[in-house]
Design brief:
single chain, six-stranded mixed beta sheet, about 35% helix, about 220 residues, about 25% strand, four-stranded antiparallel beta sheet, Rossmann fold, alpha/beta, globular
């Protein structure tokens, strides 16, 4: 489902070059739940951003769902990202002026989906995360764990093949973190969605199928 081959990423200024990733190779089969760990600044988020087509590699190739993405143009990348990828962030990134169900519908606005179908799919996604009864609430009426559930519903509403999660339990206490992990594990099991999660929490990482560690932009295990 994800194939990273010899990927390097350098950030350059007039005076300095920072190598965030060095000749990274990683294969993630369909249906796997993979964790990525490592110290701050080791390249975890850079790797996730390259997988999510938010950033481009300086060298190497990226293949997602059988398609080599490296040479895609901007509009094609945007369409692929919307149709194939779901994103979950540590900080939720919900729009406070929109209701829960309207937040969940957002990815579908970029597709040719009727309003009725958008609402049906959004309610179905909210049911997956146990928040059907909060569909009319606003984000500021929710707890942190409930906000993350909404973010997960938004990530899965378009039925993506791949979910990329950047510290999805990082802003939550241990109980809420466990609840969010249980939801992700169930989505992976029930829907077969491939999930790649960046985390600092060893306990959460051990719940997934496999753990990859990075250090100084390189894979060490």
């Amino acid at each position: 489902m994800i194939e990273i081959k010899n990927v390097s990423k350098a950030y350059r200024t007039d005076t300095i070059e920072t190598l965030a990733l060095q000749k990274m190779n990683l294969s993630v089969p369909s249906g796997e739940f993979l964790s990525i760990m490592g110290p701050s600044g080791c390249g975890k988020s850079t790797l996730l951003n390259i997988m999510g087509l938010i950033d481009e590699p300086s060298e190497g190739t990226v293949t997602l769902a059988g398609q080599q993405i490296t040479d895609y143009n901007g509009s094609r990348i945007a369409r692929f990202r919307n149709e194939q990828l779901g994103f979950i962030f540590q900080s939720f990134h919900l729009i406070n002026d929109l209701t829960v169900v309207d937040n969940v519908e957002l990815p579908l606005l970029y597709r040719k989906v009727s309003g009725k179908e958008r609402r049906r799919l959004a309610m179905e996604a909210l049911a997956h995360v146990g928040l059907s009864n909060r569909s009319g609430h606003f984000p500021n009426q929710l707890s942190g764990g409930q906000k993350q559930r909404v973010a997960i519903a938004r990530a899965i509403v378009g039925r993506p093949n791949i979910i990329l999660a950047d510290e999805p339990t990082g802003n939550l206490d241990s109980r809420m973190g466990d609840e969010i992990m249980d939801i992700l594990l169930k989505l992976n099991e029930d829907l077969g969605t491939t999930i790649v999660m960046v985390t600092h929490d060893e306990r959460m990482a051990k719940k997934t199928h496999r753990l990859v560690r990075l250090s100084d932009g390189e894979r060490v295990s």
